[in-house]
Every structure is written in C-alpha cells, then in structure tokens.
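Please, structure for the following, as tokens.
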Amino acid sequence: MALQSYAARHAAGAARIAAVNGGSVKIYNGSRPAGLTNQSLATYISAATLVVSFTLNSTAFGADSNGTSSLNLAAPQGNGSQIAGTASATGTLSASNTTSGFAVFCDSSNAPVWSCTAGLNGSGAEVTIDVQPQSGGTVNLTGYTHTESAGT
C-alpha cells in the first residue's frame, strides 16, 4: 500500500464515512473472516447469524479529522451516548476479546461498505455495545471511531 498525503487520507476517510449516511450497522456472531472483499463479505454475511441492526443518522459520522471520525450517536437515531436497536437473535459476543462478533457498515441500499470487530464495552472491539444481545431485547451501540489507513 502506498503512503497517502494528508489531503488524500482526509478525502478517502470523508468519502468512506459518507457512504453509510442513512445506512446501518449490523452485528453478527462469530469471527470476521480475513481477506474479505465487498462481494465475498455479502456472500459470507448471507449465511451468518445477524444478532442486531442499528439505523444510522443521515449524517452517520462527525467531521473527518486527519482520517479519523467518530460515529454520530446524536438524535434522531441516538440519544447522544448510544443508538438503540432490538436484537433479532441471541448473541455470543464477548467482553474480553474481539473475535466473538463482527460488525458490517452498510449503505442506505443495504450493501456492505466495510466490516470490523464487534464486542461488549471493554472488549477492545472496534464497534461496542452495552449488553449481550438476547432475542427481542434492547441493545445499545455505544461507540465506533473510523480511522482511514495512512498506508505503509
């Protein structure tokens, strides 16, 4: 991977986070497979167990700053500190590791844009939720910060 200038990193980060405006974050049980493309991710998730889905704001992220931006947890989708969702299945996410769940950010047409690790608060996962999902129960998405790669 080539090194990116600040301007290129900023533009790439801004474009990626804009792609999920009004989209969703879907959390699945299990480890995220390595080396997925968007096409293979779509195939993989069609067979995975969806645990909970969260609707994103029309402005899903705050402003990009040097390739980094935090998920917008404000109204109308969130309350400033979390976004609520209803679990569609019982989850097995961990509070102590990042390999028990993964999240997929989707655009407004439900197409996957990127994936990352998911787990309970304190797990070290990239996307965090507050409780172990129980089918029909409320789950709160509590955080995610997107960092665009600077390259190597």
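The radius of gyration is 15 Å. The longest helix spans residues 6-18.
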